[in-house]
Amino acid sequence: MDAKVLIESFAEFARSKNVDRPTMIRILEDVFRAMIRKKFETDENFDVTINADQGDLEIFRIREIVDDNSEDIWDLDKISFAEARKIEPDFEIGEEVYEKIELEAFGRRAVQMARQTLIQRIKDLEKDILYTKYEELVGEIVSAEVYQILGREILLMDGDGNELILPKAEQISKDRFRKGDTVKAIVHRVDMSNGNPKIILSRTSPVFLERLFENEVPEVYDGLITIIKIVREPGERAKVAVESYDDRIDPVGACVGMKGSRIHAVVRELQNENIDVINFTENLDLYVTRALSPAKVSSITANEETKRLSVFLKPDQVSLAIGKGGYNIKLASRLVGYEIDVFRELNESEEEDVDLMEFVDEIDSWIIDELKKTGLDTAKSVLSLTKEDLTRRTELEEETVDEIFRILGQEFDQ
Fold first, then answer.
1. What is the CATH number of domain 139-204?
2. Under a CB-based contact definition with an 8 Å cutoff, are residues 46 and 31 in contact?
3. Where in the cell is it found (predicted)?
4. Which residues contact 305 (CB under 8 A, 6 or more apart)?
C-alpha cells in the first residue's frame, strides 16, 4: 500500500466520522512520527509534510554533515562526509542533508499496522467526542428512537446513530414503547464501560419533570418562577413546590395554565401522572397543609428533634390525606422533609373506640407505628377497612393483617 492510498482511505473514513481536517492531519502526523521513532529511534530531525486532500506524504530526514573522524559521527542527527557525498557529490562539511524517506522503507508490516492504528485513533476520538457531548447534556432532555426492546432496558438511537440506554428502573411503570417510537428522557449519567461511553437516560428523575415544566411554562424557563423542590412516584403522583419573587405572578396559576393547558402537556408525557403544584412558604404549618392537599388539616404538632409531625384531621379527611396507595402522604413527607403521622379527631360518637397503643402487648410496636403512619390510630379505624385495603395501604404481610383483625375484633366481641 503506497502513501497516497493509505492517506486517501484514512481521510475518507475520518470525514465519514465528521472529524475536522486539523485533527485528521494531527493524527496522521502522530502515527507517521511513531513509525519514524520505531525505525530510527528519534523523530526530532525529521520533517513530515502531509496533504490529506491530495493524498501526498513527504518525509525528510535532516542530518548535519561532519568530518569522517568527528566524535559526533554517531549522533542520530549527524552524517559522515563520505556518506553524504554518496547522496550528493557537491555536499560540504557543515551543510545539512535532506534525505527523502519513502513509505515503503518502513516495510509492509509497519504500513499495515499504521493503517490499523489510524482507524483505531479515529474510533477512540469518536468515543471521546461522544462522551464529552453527552457529559455536557446531563440533566437535559433528549429525544431518541427505539430500535431494540430488551428485558431490562430499551436501546434507543439518536439522530447521529449513537446508542442510548433507558434502563427498566428509569422507565415509568406505565411506559409502553414499540420499535420506531420517539422517546423523550433526560440524560441521567454517562459511564465509561471498557473504553466505550454508556449513555443512561431517565424518565423517572425529578429533573425530567423540572425540564418538562421549563419547556411548557415560559416563566419557569425565564427564571420568573423558581421550582424549589420536586418529589415523585413516577407515573402515579408528583408534588412540585414553586415560588415567584414577583408579586404580580401567581406561580401555581402560571404552571397550571388556562384550564390546565400547560400542565396537561406535562401530565400526558408522564403517562397521566397526577401533579400537585403548590406555593412554597417558610411557614411550616402552612406548607404542610398545602402539601397534604386536598385534605383539610385541623391542627399540626411538630417535633423538631425527631423531625416528625403529628397532623390531626377530621375522620372524613384522613383518606384524602393518605391518598390512593398512600402516595399523597408519602410525597408530602418527602416534600416538607418531615415524617408525617396522621391522627383522626374523635367526635362524641367515637369515644367508645380504643387507641391502638392499648394493644401494644399483643401487637408489635413497629406494626402499630406502620398503621399510625397511614392515619390509623384506633381499633375501629382499622376495622373499617377491608383486609385488601389495609394490605395495600401498609404493605404488611397478609398473615400479619389477619392477626391484626383477629386481635382488634376480639376487643369489640367482648
1. 2.40.50.140
2. no
3. Cytoplasm
4. none
